Every structure is written in C-alpha cells, then in structure tokens.
Amino acid sequence: MVSPLPSAESSGSVNVEAYVDQTAALLGLRIPPEIRASVIENFEQVVAIAQPVLDFEMLDSLELAPTFEP
Q1: Contact present, 16 and 44 (Cβ < 8 Å)
Q2: Is residue 3 assigned to a domain?
Q3: How many structural domains compose the chain?
Q4: CA–CA separation, 63 vs 15, rounded Å?
Q5: Would you place residue 33 in the very low, low, confident or very high pLDDT band (cuts 50, 70, 90)?
C-alpha cells in the first residue's frame, strides 16, 4: 500500500522526488526520463494544494456519519 504524503509540518519538508519514485515502483509504472521532471513538478503542486487539508486537525470526539444521504 502506498502511504500518503507526509505533512510538511511533521517532516520538515516533503520529499516529492522520492515519493514519485517509490510510488511508481510499487505500482509497477515506468516513468520515462524525459517526463520525470514534469511528473515531480505536478506532484509538488499537488502537495501545495493538499497541504491545508492535510494540516487541518480533526477532533478525536468527532464521529463519522453512518451513511451518506444527499
């Protein structure tokens, strides 16, 4: 199983390059060398976009809804 990106707060910084390489290996994907830099750049943008959500602290007292009803 691929672990989620660690929060920059908890690790100091996210090593996106290592994450891309390890995830590709786990999934059996070959990233051609000519596009590897672009893939890493896109994941860096994903980290920047997701970071506020990853940093949001949830209270332990919150409970999940048993079912979703729109």
Answers
A1: yes
A2: no
A3: 1
A4: 32
A5: very high
